[in-house]
Structures are given as structure tokens and as C-alpha cells.
Design a protein that fits this description.
The protein has eleven helices and 20 strands. It is of the alpha/beta class. Strand 3, helix 2 and strand 4 form a beta-alpha-beta unit.
Length: 444
Amino acid sequence: MNARLLPLLGLLLATACKETTPPPPPVAARPTSGAAPRFLAGPADGKLHVYFFDVGQGDSALIVSPEGRTVLVDAGPASAVGHLSDRLPELLAARLDLIVLTHPAVDHFGALHSVHKLVDPRRLLEPQLPGTPTDYDALLTTLGSRGVEIFSPAPNPSQPQEPLRLPLGGGAELTVLWPRAPTEPLLTVPGATDRRAEHAANSIVLRLTHGDTSVLFAGDVGAETEAALVKQRGSALRSTLLKVSRHGEEGATSMEWLQEVRPLAALVSTKSPPAQATMERLKLAGTRIFRTDQHGELHAVSDGKRLVVTPQRLVAGENISGPQVFEPLGDDVSLEPLVVQPPAPKVVPAKSVTKTPEPVDLSRFKQVVDVDQLSPSKAPDKGGRTPKSAPKSGPGRYVGSRRSDVFHVPECSNARKISQENLVSFSTREAAAKERRPARDCNP
């Protein structure tokens, strides 16, 4: 693919930051039938913004850094052209600095055939994988002919063990966690019948950081890539918000992955309902789930200390009344391991059985618990006394964990699992509700 260039990290965004008034591309490079792009957004406000677009069964998100640098991560399917053509000019104040195509799947690049004429991108990052589709190759050739600098996510040759870092200004930074060719070989998928599985396994995985907050873009990676990244990066994967891979389908977002990422919030970009097993794992990890098929576009804003997430739509029956605030603990804080043990089913005495009992469906014993409450619980002793580590109960008392955004009544079984160092007490329900939401298990 002759449109691809070797990575030039030093030229990535430094050149863009030096330009005060970027010159327009040559007239010949613009389409003859279209007018020059019009950008409607105001100046940068010093905060990091991420817009997760509702593009149906596909992915597309726009990053706007505290200094106004802009990155489009994927461009959704071709059916999203109309929506992105309306939405992107509203959010851009100047031509787009960077496009990241995580992998050559049409639901991630389909709309870019038309959208690139509106956003006028400077550079494009793509994984440079073998066996790419012809329409993907044609797109890169077109972009290269328009002067777009195309490069791959190879590590810096002077520091091959370090991931590629892309500074966006104002303290925001993108880190490319995968792929890392040629330093590390691309992943293969045993039993795959075509290239698409290996393309997904080698999706570009990005971690966006700003202060104590972070967003992890997982592309369409599956269990193979998750396991490799867990082995390589471990707790360095920890992120406030996770863009769930594969639109929430099965075969990804494992408990081992969630053990390291520990997302407080998760975004599933989808048109159809995600896999129930994937949603259960996210809930068991104590993660607040947002879905574009239900909540529409998601807007995440970070001041470096907390992440505020605002859904476009509210969902009936959910305990979400508006913007949700997530305050991460920071990468240097150690967390207890995620231990998920459903309660044992009741055993019916043999003498009371009059017929052969039906098999017990253990899946119904899964429960939603908070991250701080996933250590084994301490049961009352034979005299019915509560263990010393359980919070004391009393009239008008409510409790919560420093690592969670919910509150309980002290008698709640999950409240008794909160360690003393993380225990927070409230004298009234009103005081608790100002800072946290009611837990679903005890509905205080």
C-alpha cells in the first residue's frame, strides 16, 4: 500500500502545535464539487472532552484536548455519514489534527470515504496490517493523495520497550498500547478462516490520560489481545472509562481484563443488544454501563481530577438522572482482587423431596456488587452477632465505601463487606443521596 509511511513521532502533533494559522491545502487537493469546510466550535476551554457518537453498529469518537487538539478515533459505518457530517463541524474549531483507524473493518472506517472531505485531516494513524480490503486500500490512497500523512503505531526505535506516546497538549496524552510491530509480532488467531479475526485482534488500543482520569479505547480486540496486554501492562491498563470492544459481543471483556482495567464506567457502541454475559461481567466489576443504542451519544469531560459523563438520553427504570461523576483513585493506588462468588443455593432436605428436583440454574444467583465489596464476606457467628468489622447499625444511619458511588443501610449484606478504612457514614438519607446513589441490592 504505497500510501503508507513509516511512523514519524516527532512530527505527529508538534508540527500542528507550532502552526498558529494552518494554511489550507492546495486548491487542486480539494474535491471540485464541495465547498471549503466550515467549523463552528468555539475555542478550547482547558478541559478534555470525548464525544462517543451514536453511529449504530460501529465505532466513532472525537477527542478534543484541553488546548484544542482533535483526534477522531474511527469513523463508523457508511450509514453514519449523514450524522457525522452534521455533528463534526459543530465540534471542530479547525481542521482535524489526527484520525485513528483502529483496524480495517467497514463499521470503523466506512463513513470516512465522505467525512474526510469535511474534516480535512492532517494525519492518519492506522495499524498497517496485511491483507486489508480493497476499499480500505483505496481510502488510504485517496487520503495520501490529499496530503494526509499516514503512519503506523510502531514503537520509537530509540525506546523500543516503551509504548508510542502522542501528546495532545494541556496535560492530555494518547498512549498506543497495541500493536507494537516490529518490536513484537502481530497476534494470530488459531482457527480463523479469514483475515478479519486477525485484523480485530491487532486493533489499535489507545489509552487517553488527563491527570488522574483515563479512557481506554479497546477497538475490536478479543480475549487473545486482552491476555497479552494484561501480561505486558497489568495495572497500567487501569482506566476511568472503558470503550468496550466488539460492541459488547461475547469473546472479549473477560474478568481478567476487567481485573486490571477496573473501569468505573463503560461505553458500548452498538445498535443491537450486547451479550448478556458481557454485561454481567461489567456489572460484577461494579461498572456503570452506558449503551449508545439506549443512551445515544455520550459526552465525557475531564478536568484532570474527575470524569463527568452525560448521556444524550435517559433510560426508564435506570437510576440515572443526569450527568454522572466518576472520581478515580489514581494509577498508584492498589486495589483488592476481584473475587466473585455467587451465594450457594438452598439445599432441600431429602425427606421433604417427593419428586426428582429440577436442576438449579446457577446463573440466577449472579449479583451486582461494588468493587470494594468483592472480598469474601464475614458471616455472623452462631449467636447471631455481627462481626466486629461490620459497620454499626442505628436509626437514620447510612453507609458507603470510598471506592464506590452507592450507599446502603448498615444491615445490608454488601455493606458489611466494606472494610473499615473505606467506610463512610451518613447521618441522614438526604446527606447520603447528595454524594451517592442508592444501592440496588438493599434499595435504602
